[in-house]
Here is the input.
Amino acid sequence: MGDARERSLLARWQQHDDRDALEEVLRIEVAGLKQRVREAQGGSTSTSASDVAQEAVARLLQASPAPRFETPAGLRGYLWRAARNLLVDRLRRARHVPLELGPTTTQSLLAEPSTSGELGGVEHADLNDALELALNLLRPADQEILRLVYFDGLSIEDAGNRLGVERDSANTRLVRARVRLAEKLATWREFVAE
Here is the structure.
């Protein structure tokens, strides 16, 4: 029954440019795609399955001319190939280099309310050590977006281009990375505040 529903939605989109049908069929397909991406990562969380699925859908929507699919399986295959290519590209770019802080990087990172937490009374040297430790304990994907924006001084749009994602995806990654950094800093606060 599910495949017949998807087939009907796919036909409505392709024959009548019904965007509501497209949205519904994509909702169905993205749920499965995210699961496949998680499985393909083999437990690695360096890339968010949601980010990859979002990028795969964005590529579909930006394709000109729009691809045509005979069956939902064709759409599913297209999305999976796009997601797989994104994962391969990201793995090729991945490299883990420990992040070392300079004074300006520390200040710009801590100027963000989402990362500073309650570390106002901590000595600068201790704070720098805690921040460096917390940064290096983050997932590589979080480190990468923080490095591009705060260490390399790229705009969010340029960081997104470097990562091969849209500006909005890069911004979402940056927000998530700052929140994770704040959580790590809060964990290490007791060690640096003594």
